[in-house]
């Protein structure tokens, strides 16, 4: 730095590139399944069971998703992403309940009120529309200028406010839209003096009596929302003028349902119960036709006080297919419409990078049929009864939801195979596989069923768990206190808790399971040992120790990737390196760049070793980083490639896994090789 002796401005060059490598989160789960409500094929970030209930409703007999997410949070999970699936069939697919608000004359539809998300739950919604006047003042017609009105106060009036003016109770009121407000002179202008400030509703006032004051009131609407007779929400200050900030369709638009932010770094905001669709431009006009420069504003354009019940909601479960859970691939040159139609279920989770484990429990669904729905008998009062005080009415029975189909074994395998392929192609998450219903309940073949299912998979990116878990069922259909659900929610929750408490290198096993009453199959030591050697992670009930996961293996035949914590540790390292070494792309391939890259990776791996995530009595035994002339030959430099060889020794087992990082001309690529302890590449 130059000596600061002479007063003046000095410029210094500072390298603002952050070359540090930091670990990424590995406790975020992703779930795909059936829910009572919520957006379809849209990933929603959640951080509590309460948030799930707000967005997707309560547990339902038609799916396991709600049970799985609750098990995740009960077992220590802190954050997950949820995607609701439903059929998009034109005739029997998912649909939102809705109702239409008509004008005072009943001839023109003004707004369509719809449930914020599709499903039969919307058929329980009812709304009540009430006209309100939040801003009121008095005015005069002194001066005789019909382009404005002097008022006692301009508080509550803004540009675009719909206003009712009246001088007597018998005369018909006059409706105008405020073009501008002057708080200094206390004037409400009805016509703009500049063409650029004009509104389509600008109109002069008709002649008024100068001797009488003018009552000036704003016109807004309040919509009260009830679900099953219980008040749920109140939306105030909605206006009919599209230019007003509180325009109804804009205030209750569908875009307000989920606000996950960039990659969902924040949890979703509380969802709305209803939304409003614009059917016509307020005050006489078709939204598809250009509005005239002046529109007549009459009482027939306003909304009358009314009460409506929403109808027509469908869950879209009867026609549910396996493709609804996994979506389909698309080409880079496909249109946005084609991509949106294929980005469904599991493919929707592909847009979220922070997920580290994925499960699809509802492909195994065995729906529980709700009790028969029948209307309550009419109430006939007893003329001889002595009690004259009317008793409160009994709540109306809820309309039952749709029942999804039972998927075949071929469909289950198709979905799980696609789930495994999804994880292998992304290389940043693992698949949690649930054993099929029949094998998990021991109805056929005993252990042979789950053993045969295990033979269908060979992947280092997936883990299989057996049997299912029985949990307390809030529904208690047929007076059953518990319900058997797939174990993936409990497993993901224990993984998340272990990762945060100890680290990803710790096997997510041998800790008590929470919110678990029993297992569907009782395992002994012999059966456990047989399944464990096959790579099937067993859940067992141990005397005095409760229910625990006693296995942490993948379904890979490669001994280098036998253990799940090893696979997840390497995934975390690879993802951290991928994110933290992007600065090296397009940097000069010289000694300085190589040394900076080597030192940043070296410091990161040393930190992991100090935390106990890598094995070895010294750093030399735990890892190595090589980025010099030995692996960056002149031929590599000539084609714009920078290579870094990294070797790490996972804590369990004591085996090396090599991650090779190289920089091409315009991208960063990562590959991996397994090596023996002696260093020979296998």
Task: Write a structural description.
There is one protein chain. This protein has 682 residues and is an alpha+beta fold. It folds into 4 domains: 29-90 and 316-368 and 398-501 and 509-551, Rossmann fold (3-Layer(aba) Sandwich); 98-132 and 220-309, no CATH class; 136-218; 585-675, 2-Layer Sandwich (Dihydrodipicolinate Reductase, domain 2). Helices cover 20% and strands 22% of the residues. It is built from 15 helices and 29 strands. The strands form 6 sheets. The chain has an 8-stranded mixed beta sheet, sandwiched between helices. It has a 7-stranded antiparallel beta sheet with strand order 10-9-13-7-8-12-11, with no helix packed on it. It has a 4-stranded antiparallel beta sheet with strand order 15-14-6-17, with no helix packed on it. It starts with 28 loop residues before the first strand and ends in a 7-residue tail after the last strand. Residues 255-262, 288-293, 392-397 and 676-682 have low confidence and may be disordered. It comes from Gemmatimonas aurantiaca. InterPro entries: Phage_sheath_subtilisin (IPR035089), Tail_sheath_C (IPR020287), Tail_sheath_structural (IPR052042). This is Phage tail sheath family protein. Residues 426-554 form the Tail sheath protein subtilisin-like domain.
């Amino acid at each position: 730095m130059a000596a600061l002796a002479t007063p003046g401005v000095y410029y210094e060059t500072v390298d603002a590139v952050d070359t540090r490598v930091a670990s990424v989160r590995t406790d975020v789960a992703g779930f795909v399944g059936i829910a009572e409500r919520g957006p379809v094929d849209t990933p929603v970030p959640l951080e509590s069971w309460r948030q799930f209930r707000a967005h997707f409703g309560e547990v339902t007999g038609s799916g396991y998703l709600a049970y799985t997410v609750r098990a995740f949070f009960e077992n220590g999970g802190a954050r997950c992403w949820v995607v609701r699936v439903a059929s998009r069939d034109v005739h029997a697919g998912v649909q939102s309940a809705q109702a239409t608000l008509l004008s005072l004359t009943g001839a023109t539809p003004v707004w369509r009120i719809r449930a914020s998300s599709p499903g039969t739950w919307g058929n329980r919604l009812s709304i009540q529309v009430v006209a309100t006047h939040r801003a009121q003042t008095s005015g005069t017609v002194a001066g005789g200028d019909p382009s404005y009105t002097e008022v006692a106060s301009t508080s509550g009036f803004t540009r675009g406010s719909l206003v009712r003016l009246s001088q007597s109770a018998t005369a018909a009121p006059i409706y105008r839209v405020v073009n501008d407000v002057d708080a200094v002179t206390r004037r409400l202008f009805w016509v703009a003096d500049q063409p650029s400030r004009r509104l389509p509703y600008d109109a002069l006032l008709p002649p008024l009596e100068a001797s009488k004051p003018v009552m000036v009131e704003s016109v807004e609407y309040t919509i009260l929302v009830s679900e099953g007779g219980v008040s749920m929400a109140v939306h105030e200050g909605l206006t009919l003028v599209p230019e007003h900030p509180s325009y109804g369709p804009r205030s209750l638009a569908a875009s307000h349902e989920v606000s996950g932010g960039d990659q969902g770094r924040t949890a979703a905001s509380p969802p709305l119960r209803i939304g409003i669709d614009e059917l016509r431009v307020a005050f006489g006009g078709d939204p598809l036709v250009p509005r005239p420069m002046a529109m007549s504003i009459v009482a027939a354009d306003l909304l009358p006080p009314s009460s409506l019940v929403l109808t027509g909601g469908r869950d879209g479960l009867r026609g549910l297919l396996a493709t609804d859970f996994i979506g389909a691939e698309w080409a880079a040159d496909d249109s946005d419409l084609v991509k949106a139609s294929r980005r469904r279920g599991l493919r929707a989770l592909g847009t979220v990078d922070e997920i580290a484990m994925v499960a699809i429990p509802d492909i195994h669904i065995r729906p529980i049929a709700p009790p028969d729905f029948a209307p309550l008998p009419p109430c006939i009062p007893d003329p001889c009864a002595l009690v004259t005080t009317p008793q409160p009415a009994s709540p109306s029975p809820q309309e039952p939801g749709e029942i999804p189909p039972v998927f075949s074994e071929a469909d289950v395998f198709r979905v799980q195979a696609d789930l495994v392929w999804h994880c292998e192609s992304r290389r940043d998450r693992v698949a949690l596989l649930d054993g099929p219903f029949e094998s998990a309940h021991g109805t056929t073949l005993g252990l042979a069923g789950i053993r045969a299912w295990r033979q269908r998979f060979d992947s280092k990116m997936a883990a299989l768990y057996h049997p299912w878990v029985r949990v307390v069922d809030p529904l208690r259909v047929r007076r059953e206190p518990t319900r058997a659900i797939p174990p993936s929610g409990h497993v993901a929750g224990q993984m998340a808790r272990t990762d945060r408490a100890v680290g990803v290198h710790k096997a997510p096993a041998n800790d008590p399971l929470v919110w678990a009453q029993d297992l569907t199959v009782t395992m002994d030591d012999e059966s456990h040992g047989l399944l464990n050697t096959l790579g099937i992670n067993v859940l067992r009930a141990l005397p005095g120790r409760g229910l625990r996961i006693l296995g942490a293996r993948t379904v890979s035949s490669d001994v280098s990737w036998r253990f799940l914590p090893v696979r997840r540790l390497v995934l975390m390292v690879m993802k951290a390196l991928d994110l933290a070494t992007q600065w090296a792309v397009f940097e000069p391939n010289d000694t300085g760049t190589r040394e900076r890259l080597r030192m940043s990776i070296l410091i990161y791996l040393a930190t992991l070793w100090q935390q106990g995530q890598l094995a070895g009595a010294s750093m030399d035994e735990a890892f190595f980083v090589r980025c010099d002339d030995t692996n960056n030959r002149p031929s590599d430099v000539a084609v714009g490639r920078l290579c870094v060889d990294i070797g790490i020794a996972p804590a369990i087992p004591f085996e090396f896994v090599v991650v090779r990082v190289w920089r091409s001309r315009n991208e960063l690529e990562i590959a991996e090789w397994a090596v023996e302890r002696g260093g020979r590449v296998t």
